[in-house]
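Hey,
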Amino acid sequence: MVISANALSGASGVGLVPTLVSEAAVSADVEMVQEGSAGSDRLIAPRRLPNPCLENPQRMDLHRELLFNQRIGKNVLNQKSELERALSKHKEKQILNQVKEHRETPELERAIAERARRLEQAQEQNTEEIESGTNPTLQEVRARLRHAAPPAPPAPSPAASAH
């Protein structure tokens, strides 16, 4: 298929007029011919038009950033799996509940509750020590002493020396 200026436009007209000529007569090259010229010696080679979108610096920066994020594995579009979304919702709810609880209780009440909690923990530890019968640190010291000192030979009895 060849585009020529003289085929359909006739002799009149100004500028370039693209027309189609049968493929059997000419090879399958695309040609633009200026009107008024008689031959194919003055052909204008087609050029690729510049794409302003590709030359836009903002688009180039965005493309560079997207490629970088893809290389490091960062998900830019926030396309999370269902499990990740559920986990993030759960965390957000926990944080909101903590903030709400923190706002509702005054500072004095929080300090009293913290002190009561520490006292309860101390009482639980004391009851565990009492239930075990002895102090665990005392048991540790006794165990160390047993392993550190070799067993002493039995002392001779006074009755054995009399014989």
